[in-house]
């Protein structure tokens, strides 16, 4: 779906953003009838509270949306953006906002509030439209919103319509739209091309859902950036089958792939001066006579051996081959994104994107980017003393250490064994469990905006 700003109009309706403290100064500028209307409606500028002010003939002549008090603002994001779904039909322009209100945040939030997933059921887009506020980069915000919409659409699509082949098709459409090149290695060809872990995890799936590695390239000059996204299009858990309650959201287990594709759109649409590579191992972790087994010892692309102690820890296996390929290209900044561990959710919940960075300067840039883009992250440690936990007796690595402690950290340490030196890993959730302003329930991007904002510092752009 298209998320875009309205063209400027002489008839656009003024929209005010305010906190409770600033409400009197705004209302004092209205005529007595409008002031009486505000009082009669009990409008108090609470968080996301919205009101339209009518003229005597019933037209909307102004609107106000509240931010709530300081406590509400600390607890919420995109609070004013909810107005996009609450206001009546019309074209609005931002008339006034407190200094604390970020115009770019409001503008992006407004567009994201307009997102609807309509593949299987129609849903009306908001009737209200917004003229891009003065001082914001409208084209950049529209590119970010489009990338986020792509991520949400891919995650929200159920696995029967978003298997490895469909994920490949989505990547191909994106590549074509930006003039990127793309190659795909599929099925038994993965073995010939030395991607044994990707093949092993996906080989039990039906032939039309065969495993594959998607490799997209864009840009001919500038610093190099490699994005690696986990594309497990459905995860049964393999022979260590998940219980039903844990399998219900496994259509989102390709959320890492969806997020890097959304971020790739942002980068390409904005024409950033860099060389981008996107690697997506796309598989279905199915149950079948050819499924890999607990106790198997597998050999990855770079020769490291892995003892399989849980077939439900498959994401790190497919990422290992992709990261090994990335490492062959040198020490380009390499970022993996994956819905990898439940331990990350236990640690930080669904709203924060935990990430691991090998270098402090990279971590600092990402944290600053997250704050500027209202895309919250939390740095986790590559804690070297835990390395022993991923080293079993009969192989180089253990894909699922026993004990259940530090699950997100040990998974990240596992991935680091295959990655180049300049490495960042995001262990994301990719799902909004309850609707919030600019974030309906369902698939959601995490970390992409933070990375986009950080790229100038990360790559010297």
TrEMBL record:
<protein>
    <submittedName>
        <fullName>Putative cytosol aminopeptidase</fullName>
        <ecNumber>3.4.11.1</ecNumber>
    </submittedName>
</protein>
<dbReference type="GO" id="GO:0005737">
    <property type="term" value="C:cytoplasm"/>
</dbReference>
<comment type="similarity">
    <text>Belongs to the peptidase M17 family.</text>
</comment>
<keyword id="KW-0378">Hydrolase</keyword>
<dbReference type="InterPro" id="IPR011356">
    <property type="entry name" value="Leucine_aapep/pepB"/>
</dbReference>
<dbReference type="InterPro" id="IPR043472">
    <property type="entry name" value="Macro_dom-like"/>
</dbReference>
<dbReference type="GO" id="GO:0006508">
    <property type="term" value="P:proteolysis"/>
</dbReference>
<keyword id="KW-0645">Protease</keyword>
<dbReference type="GO" id="GO:0030145">
    <property type="term" value="F:manganese ion binding"/>
</dbReference>
<keyword id="KW-0464">Manganese</keyword>
<dbReference type="GO" id="GO:0070006">
    <property type="term" value="F:metalloaminopeptidase activity"/>
</dbReference>
<dbReference type="InterPro" id="IPR000819">
    <property type="entry name" value="Peptidase_M17_C"/>
</dbReference>
<dbReference type="InterPro" id="IPR048816">
    <property type="entry name" value="Peptidase_M17_N_1"/>
</dbReference>
<keyword id="KW-0031">Aminopeptidase</keyword>
<dbReference type="Pfam" id="PF21337">
    <property type="entry name" value="Peptidase_M17_N_1"/>
</dbReference>
<feature type="domain" description="Cytosol aminopeptidase">
    <location>
        <begin position="310"/>
        <end position="317"/>
    </location>
</feature>
<dbReference type="Pfam" id="PF00883">
    <property type="entry name" value="Peptidase_M17"/>
</dbReference>
């Amino acid at each position: 779906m298209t998320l875009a700003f309205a063209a400027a109009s002489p008839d656009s309706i003024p929209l005010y953003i305010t906190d409770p403290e600033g409400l009197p100064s705004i209302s004092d500028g209205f005529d007595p009838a409008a002031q009486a209307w505000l009082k009669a409606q009990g409008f108090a500028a609470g968080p996301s509270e919205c009101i339209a002010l009518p003229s005597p003939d019933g037209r909307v002549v102004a609107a106000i949306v509240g931010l709530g008090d300081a406590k509400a603002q600390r607890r919420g994001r995109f609070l004013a953006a909810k107005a996009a779904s609450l206001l009546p039909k019309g074209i609005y322009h931002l008339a006034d906002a407190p200094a604390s209100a970020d115009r770019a945040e409001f503008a992006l939030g407004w567009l994201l509030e307009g997102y609807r997933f309509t593949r299987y059921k129609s849903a009306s887009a908001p009737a209200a439209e917004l003229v891009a506020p003065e001082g914001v980069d409208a084209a950049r915000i529209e590119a970010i919103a489009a990338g986020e919409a792509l991520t949400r659409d891919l995650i929200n699509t159920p696995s029967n319509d978003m298997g490895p082949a469909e994920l490949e098709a989505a990547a191909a459409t994106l590549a074509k739209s930006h003039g990127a090149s793309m190659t795909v290695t599929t099925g038994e060809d993965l073995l010939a091309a030395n991607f044994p872990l990707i093949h092993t995890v996906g080989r039990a799936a039906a032939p039309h859902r065969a495993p594959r590695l998607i490799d997209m390239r864009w840009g001919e000059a500038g610093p190099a950036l490699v994005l690696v996204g986990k594309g497990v299009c459905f995860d049964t858990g393999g022979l260590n089958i998940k219980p039903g309650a844990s399998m219900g959201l496994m259509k989102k287990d390709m959320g890492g792939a969806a997020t890097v594709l959304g971020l790739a759109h942002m980068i390409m649409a904005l024409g950033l001066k860099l060389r981008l590579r996107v690697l997506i191992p796309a598989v279905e972790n199915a149950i079948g006579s050819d499924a890999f087994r607990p106790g198997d010892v597998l050999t990855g692309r770079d020769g490291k051996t892995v003892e399989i102690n849980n077939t439900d820890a498959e994401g790190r296996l497919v990422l290992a081959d992709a990261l090994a390929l990335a490492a062959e290209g040198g020490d380009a900044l390499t970022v993996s994104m994956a819905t990898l561990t439940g331990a990350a959710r236990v640690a930080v919940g669904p709203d924060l994107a935990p990430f691991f960075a090998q270098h402090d300067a990279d971590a600092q840039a990402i944290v600053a980017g997250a704050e500027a883009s209202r895309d919250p992250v939390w740095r986790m440690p590559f804690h070297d003393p835990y390395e022993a936990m991923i080293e079993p007796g009969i192989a180089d690595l253990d894909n699922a250490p026993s004990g259940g402690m530090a699950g997100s950290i040990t998974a990240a340490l596992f991935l680091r064994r295959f990655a180049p030196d300049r490495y960042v890993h995001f262990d994301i959730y990719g799902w909004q469990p309850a609707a919030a302003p600019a974030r309906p329930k369902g698939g959601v991007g995490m970390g992409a905006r933070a990375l986009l904002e950080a790229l100038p510092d990360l790559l010297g752009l």
